[in-house]
Amino acid sequence: MTSQPSAAGPAIVWFRDDLRLSDNPALRAASESGRPVLCVYIHDDGRDGQRPLGGAAKWWLHGSLERLGESLKQIGAQLHLFEGAAGDILPRITAATDAAAVYWNRRYTASGINVDTAIKQTLRERDVVVESFNGHLLYEPWQVTTKSGDPVKVFTPFWRAARALGDPDRPLARPRSINGYRWRDGISPAPVSLADLKLEPTKPDWAGGMREAWTRGEAGAQERLATFLESEMKGYAENRNRPDMASTSRLSPYLRFGEISPRQIWHAAHAALESGRTDAGRDDLDKFLSEIGWREFSYHLLFYNPDLSARNYNNRFDAFPWKTDGKALRAWQKALTGYPIVDAGLRQLWTTGWMHNRVRMIVASFLIKHLLIDWREGEAWFWDTLVDADPANNAASWQWVAGSGADAAPYFRIFNPIGQGEKFDPEGDYVRHWVPELAMLPNRVIHRPWDAAPHELRRANIELGKTYPNPFVDHDAARTRALEAFQTLKSAA
Ligand SMILES: Cc1cc2nc3c(=O)[nH]c(=O)nc-3n(C[C@H](O)[C@H](O)[C@H](O)COP(=O)(O)OP(=O)(O)OC[C@H]3O[C@@H](n4cnc5c(N)ncnc54)[C@H](O)[C@@H]3O)c2cc1C
After folding, report:
1. How far apart are CA 290 and CA 24, in angstroms?
2. What is the reported pTM?
C-alpha cells in the first residue's frame, strides 16, 4: 500500500452521482491527462456512513450503471464496479494500479464530503493528483450568498443571487474516444459484476411498473429532455400543477443520478426557445428553470444543514406533539386513506417510483397534518420508494410541507385533499387511472365518493368500506386537530 504513482499509471475517474459521459468534468480531466483512464464505481451501500439507497433508487442505479458501462465501452473504456467502503477501496485501487491521478465530481452530503476529504488527504500524501469538480449543480452552494456573505435562507433572494452570478458554464462535449486502462487479473481489490451488487429486486420482482415507465441512462435522459422541450414545456407555467397532464419534465431521477446535468438542461432549454424548436413561452422557460433553482436551493440548505433529513431546520418544531400511529402510517403507505387524490398519488409512487409534485405536496400534507405523523416517517418512505429519492430535495421538501423548513409553507396551510383534487384533477382522470375501483363514479363525486348517491355507488360497483375505504379521518375534524397541535408550537415559542 505504500507504492508511489508510476509515470505510466492510470488516471482514475470515480463515478458517483454523475453517471454520464457528456458534461462530465471529472471524465474530461482524466481523458485529457494523457494517461490510460480507469473508470470506477464503488457501491458503498451504507458503509462509510452513507445513507443506504432505497429499493427504487437501487433499481434505477442498476440500469444506469449498465448503460454507463455500455457507453464507456463504445468509446474504448470499461466501467469497473466495486463493493465496499470507498475510503478503503479507492486508496487500495490507486495503490494496486499505481494510479497517478484521481478525479471526481463533488457531492454535498456531510458523509460524502467527509469521505472525500479523507480520501483526498490520503492520496495526496502519496503524491497522487486529486481533483474534484462541480458536475451536479449550476452554482456551488458556497457561491450563492447574501450581500454580507452569509448563506441564503429564502428562495427568492437565493435565486436572484444565484442568477446574478451569470449564466452557468456551457456543458462539456462527450469524449469521442478514451484510452481505457487494461485491468490485469489478480489485481486486488477485484472488481465485481453488476449482478453481484444485487441492486434489482428478484423474489418478488416488484419493479415491473418502473420498467414500463422509465428508460434509465444518459440516452434516456436526453430523449426525455428533447421530448419535454419540443412538445411538453409549452404551458408549463400554468399546467405544471396538473397531475392529469404530462406537464412536467420527469427529469428528476436522471438529475438525481447525474445522467443529465442541470447545465445541459439550462442551455438546451434556452437554445430550444431561441431557435423556435419549442412553442413554449418565456414564462414557461423561466418557471421551469426556477424549479431547477429550487433544487439548487435545496442543495444550498443541505450543505449548510447537513442533518436536514433528520432534524427540524426550525428547532421550534422539536416540541411538536407527533402521534405514533402505526395503523394510520400503514393506511397512508398502502394508499388506503379513503381520499382518492391521496391514494392515487401513493399508488403512482408505488408503481412507477415517481409522483407528480402537486400530489407529493398533497400526500405529504395529509400525513403530517391530517394524521399528525412526523414528517421524517414520510421522508423515509419516499426515500425507499422514489426513483428520484434525493438527499437534498426530499428532506428540504418534506420540511417545507411540515412548516419546519427554510422558507416553508406556513404551518396553518393544510391542504384540503378534496378541494386540491377538484382543482388540479378536475375531470378525475388522474384518480381514475390510479384508483380504478372508482373509475365509474361521475366527475361530481370522484374526489368525494362518500357524497355519491347510493344508486351512483351501485352503478359504479363500489361498496364503501369494502371495495374502497371510507376516509381514514374526517377532513374537518383532522384540520381542527392539526391546528390545535400546531397551536402548541405557538405557545411554546
Ligand atoms: C414531499 C416532497 C418530496 C420530494 N422529494 C423529492 C426527491 O426526493 N427528489 C426530487 O428530485 N424531488 C423531490 N421533490 C420535488 C419535486 O416534487 C420533484 O423534483 C418533481 O416532482 C420531479 O418531477 P419533474 O422532474 O417532472 O419536475 P419539473 O417540474 O420538470 O422540474 C424540473 C426539475 O427541477 C427540480 N425540482 C422541481 N421541483 C422541485 C422542488 N419543489 N424542490 C426541489 N427541486 C425541484 C427537480 O430536479 C426536477 O426534475 C419532492 C417534493 C415534495 C413535496
Report:
1. 23
2. 0.97
Decide if 123 contacts 28 (C-beta within 8 A). no
Residue 398 bears catalytic tag: yes
Ligand 1 atom nearest to 236, measured from its CA: 29
pLDDT in tens, the chain (493 residues): 445 667 679 999 999 999 999 999 999 999 999 999 999 999 999 998 889 999 999 999 999 999 999 999 999 999 999 999 999 999 999 999 999 999 999 999 999 999 999 999 999 999 999 999 999 999 999 999 999 999 999 999 999 999 999 999 999 999 999 999 999 999 999 999 999 999 999 989 999 999 999 999 999 999 999 999 999 999 999 999 999 999 999 999 999 999 999 999 999 999 999 999 999 999 999 999 999 999 999 999 999 999 999 999 999 999 999 999 999 999 999 999 999 999 999 999 999 999 999 999 999 999 999 999 999 999 999 999 999 999 999 999 999 999 999 988 888 889 999 999 999 999 999 999 999 999 999 999 999 999 999 999 999 999 999 999 999 999 999 999 999 998 888 766 5
How remote is the CA of residue 248 from the centroid of ligand 1, in Å?
10
The domains located in the chain, with CATH, are 1-135 (3.40.50.620), 137-168+217-304 (1.25.40.80), 315-492 (1.10.579.10)
CA 39 to chain centre: 24
The CA–CA distances, whole Å, from 459 to 31, 255, 369, 448, 468 equal: 66, 45, 34, 16, 14
241, 322, 450, 456: the catalytic one is: 322
